[in-house]
Specification:
With 98 residues, this protein is an all-alpha fold. The protein has one domain. 93% of the residues lie in helices and 0% in strands. It has 2 helices and no strands. α1 runs antiparallel to α2.
Length: 98
């Protein structure tokens, strides 16, 4: 009987170690997703600042269709920044629950 108890106890320890490894794997995946999203967030912020700066400096000299296009681009990129930021927050919340 003690041999069976040891075996089942050992199996339970191995199962718990596997669960810890699975949780760590999920944490690593979420961290990588956050890092990847942060790269794109940075690219979009730089793009948004550049578009806005161009718009301010060329507002009076550029043709109206280009100005309108730039305004639409600023709106689209700004919306993308908000979406990516919310996705990062969602991943951080998922990390807290693990």
């Amino acid at each position: 009987m003690p041999l069976i108890l040891r075996s089942s106890l050992w199996d339970e320890v191995e199962l718990n170690e596997w669960r810890v490894e699975q949780a760590m794997s999920e944490i690593d995946v979420i961290k990588e997703q956050i890092a990847y999203l942060k790269v794109w967030l940075g690219i979009m912020v730089i793009t948004d600042i550049s578009l806005f700066g161009w718009l301010i400096t060329h507002f009076d000299r550029a043709p109206s269709r280009i100005v309108v296009g730039c305004i639409l681009a600023v709106i689209a990129v700004s919306a993308g920044i908000v979406v990516i930021h919310r996705r990062i927050e969602k991943h951080i919340e998922n990390l807290r629950s693990l």
